[in-house]
Design goal:
286 residues, mainly alpha, Hypothetical protein af1432, 2 domains
């Protein structure tokens, strides 16, 4: 267990020891964002990693999608599901694997469940607002990645902070600051830089609890902050609660989302809970 008020510089050094995302992921994300790229182009990059391609095919052929016939190739999966869906599956599978440790317990599953819920909510909101979807899913999925990093690096201290937040003694950030001297948003930002994620995504991870401080892409950061709260409202939080209905509605107004659209997103995310649990279960068993 690290000492109280652990030095952030030491933690940054430890983050550099964490696994990086596979280089093939960068090629996959770039290809998916290229309007001139084909399903074959994207499929070739995924197929270059045999483990990743096997995982994608396993997910695509699962009851989660319910196709009546078997999808046999990654290229076929891209044609059937579309670039964005396969891109998002690839990111989820890769991130989950990169920070997977033996003996992951219920609270870690809860963290990833919240992450997937936030990613789904972020994309739903972006579509209502007619925002560019680029960066939305990954920023939502990885917004709390600092919590996972703290758990991997300093398990006992993280659990102490997590339990304090779960018991309602403090917010997650406040509990972490008491235990470490800093919180998961700072750690998440450093890890996102270590993974060479786009600056706008790094900022959304670092500032999702203080979206007013964003300068690179304030709209994306506000969207992720809102999606985080929507995930709590849809009971896809961890064990702590969100900021409440009043704050949620205020955050929605700040992004331009109407009250009716907000209710639609929350209801849609509630209906997705079983599918999110199914997807998470498949990732965990891979």
């Amino acid at each position: 267990m690290p000492p109280k008020a652990l030095n952030l510089e030491y933690t940054i050094q430890k983050i550099q020891e964490l696994p990086t995302l596979p280089s093939v992921l960068g090629k996959i994300l770039a290809t998916a964002a290229d309007p001139d790229a084909s399903a074959i182009d994207l499929g070739q990059h995924i197929a270059a990693d045999q483990t990743l391609s096997a995982t994608i095919l396993k997910l695509v052929n699962s009851p989660y999608y319910g196709f009546y016939r078997q999808i046999r190739t990654v290229t076929q999966a891209i044609v059937v599901l579309g670039f964005l869906e396969v891109r998002n599956l690839t990111l989820a599978a890769t991130a989950f694997k990169a920070l997977r440790t033996p003996g992951n317990s219920h609270y870690r599953s809860a963290l990833w469940r919240h992450a997937l819920g936030t990613a789904f909510a972020a994309e739903m909101c972006a579509k209502h607002l007619d925002y560019d979807l680029e960066g939305t899913f990954e920023a939502g999925l990885l917004h709390d990645i600092g919590k996972v990093a703290l758990d991997v690096l300093f398990h006992d201290a993280f659990i102490a902070a997590y339990n304090a937040a779960a018991a309602g003694e403090a917010s997650s950030c406040a509990a972490e600051e008491t235990e470490f001297g800093f919180n998961h948003t700072q750690v998440g930002g450093v890890l996102a830089e270590h993974w060479h994620l786009p600056e706008s995504v790094v900022e959304a991870i670092r500032c999702h609890h203080a979206p007013q401080s964003a300068t690179i892409d304030p709209s994306l950061t506000q969207l992720i902050a809102l999606a985080n709260e929507i995930a709590y409202a849809a009971q896809l939080g961890e064990r702590e609660t969100g900021s409440g209905a009043g704050m949620l509605q205020a955050m929605a107004r700040n992004t331009g989302l109407t009250g009716e659209q907000l209710a639609t997103v929350v209801d849609a995310l509630v209906k997705e809970r079983d599918r999110i649990d199914e997807l998470l279960g498949m990732l965990a068993s891979d």
